[in-house]
Amino acid sequence: MADPLISYDPAGVFIPEHGITPEDIGRIAGDLDEARDEVLADAQLWADGVEPPAAKQPLDAGFHELPERLLNDYRTNGAASEVARLQATADRLAAACDRTVVLGIGGSYMGARACLEACCHPYYNELSRQARGGRPRISFEGNNVDNDAMQGLLDLVGRGAEPAGVDDRWSIVVISKSGGTLETAAAFRVMLRTLRDACGGDAKKLAELVVPVTGTSGKLFDLATALGCPAEEIYEVPDGVGGRFSVLSAVGLLPAAIMGLDIVKLLEGAAAMNEHFRNCGPESNVVLQYVAVCHLLETMRGCDIRLLSTWGKRLEAVGLWYDQLLSESLGKQERGAMPLTVVNTRDLHSRGQQHQEGKRDKLVTNVIVDSFDREPLAIGSSEYNQDQLNELADKTLPDILDAATKGTNQAYREDNRPTADLHLPRLDEHVLGQMLQMLMLATVVEGRLIGINPYGQPGVEAYKKNMNAILRA
Ligand code: PA5
Questions:
Q1: Would you say the CB of residue 176 lies under 6 angstroms from ligand 1?
Q2: What is the pTM of this model?
Q3: What phi, psi does 60 have (nearest 5°)?
Q4: pLDDT value at residue 3
Q5: What share of the chain is helix, strand, coil (3-state, %, to 5)?
Q6: Atom in ligand 1 nearest the alpha carbon of residue 109
Q7: What local confidence, expressed as pLDDT, does residue 278 receive?
Q8: Which of 52, 103, 119, 230 could form a disulfide with 174 if both were Cys (CB 3.0 to 4.6 A apart)?
Q9: CATH class of 7-59+266-454
Q10: CA of 109 to the centre of ligand 1 (A)
C-alpha cells in the first residue's frame, strides 16, 4: 500500500471580514499554475546545466529533483551510490563511537536537528546505547560562539582523554557548504584538537573519526584533505543546492543515517511530494493551496506573520528549520512575511493571549499529527482525587491534545481569526520527507509568484564582513 500523503485543510480561513473565500483562491489559480510551471522549468534549466539568464541568478534549483536523482543512483548503482556510501559511513561511525558531534550552522545544521527531534526517540541522547540501536548520541555545535556551551561539550567528550572503548569514543561530522563559516570553523578547530588528543596524536585514527560535508573546493575541503580524510568520504553539498535547501543532500542525510533513520524513506517521501506537486491541479495541490492561502491572507488581510503552530513536542525543530527557509528566501527587498514557530500546548501559556486578542496580522497554520507511535496513555483513576481528574479517567493524552487543538481553533474561529490545518498522517521518515519538500517547494513557488528570487541570501554577508573586520582589525 502506498504511504499516505500529508493533506491541507484551509476551511478555517474562509471566515467573514478577516478571511478570504474559495473564490479568491480560484481567482489566482492561473497565477499559481504559472508559478508552478516556472519552478518546474527552473528545475529543468538547472538539470540541463544551462547558464541561467541574469534575471534568474542565483538559481539554486538543484534541490527540487535531488530526491529522485539520489534514489535513481541508489537503485542503479547500489553499493557505489551516494546513499549507500552515506549509509556505510554512518554505520562505520556507529560501530566505532558513541557520540557524533555535528558541526554546522543555518542550513548546514537545522535540517539534521529537525530529523532528530521529529523521528528519533524523544530522549534519544539519554537512552542506553542498546536502546539507541547501537547508534551514537548526537550533539550539535558550531551553530553559535558560546564559550560556556562549548566548554560544556568538551566536558561531555572527556576533554581529549583517550577512550577506554567504544562507549567513550566520539567523532565529528563537520558541515559547511562554503567551508568558510567562522562559527563552524572555530568550533571545528577546537573540537579537532580535542579529538586529536583523544586519538593520542594518531593521524590515521583521527582521519577515520572526522567526516566532512562541504563543497568540492574551499577551506574545509582543503583542511579535510590535509587531515587525510579519504576522498570518498568527503561528502559533497551539490552545486546548485543552497544551504537551506540542502536537508535532503548529504548535509541532512549523513546525520540522519547516523541517528539510525531510514534515509531512503526520507527521500521517497520527498519524491512523492514532488510527484503530487507536478501532477495535481491548483484546487487539490497541497503546495499550491498552502501558497495561495498564505499569499492571499498577506496581501488581502495584512497577515504578514505566519505562525506554524505545531501540536505536541516533536515538530519544533522542523518549524525552526522552516523559519530559516522562509526568512532567508523571501525576506528581501523590504518584503517577506515573518514566520514564527509555535509549540502547543506549551505556547498557549506564553503566546496564546496575543494570538487570540492581539493585532490581526497573523495566519495560523496548525501542524497536526493524526496518529501516535506509542500506546495512548490514559489519565486513569486515583484514590487521590483532589485534582478532580477521576471524571476524565478514561481520557488519554491524545484526547487532551485533540481537545486543546479543537478548542483553540474554535476560539480563533469565533473571533474570525484565520487558521488552516496541515495534517500529517503520522510522524516518520516518509512523512517528514514529504513535509520538508512541500515547504521548500512552497517557498520557491511563492517567490516566483511575488517576483522575489528565493535563492541566495545577500543580506547575511553584511554581518560576516563587519565581524571579520572587527576581529582582524
Ligand atoms: O541557507 C543558507 O545558505 C545559510 O543558512 C547557510 O546554510 C549557513 O549560512 C551556513 O553556511 P555554510 O554551509 O556555508 O557554512
A1: yes
A2: 0.97
A3: -100, 55
A4: 87
A5: 55, 10, 35
A6: 7
A7: 97
A8: 103
A9: alpha beta
A10: 9
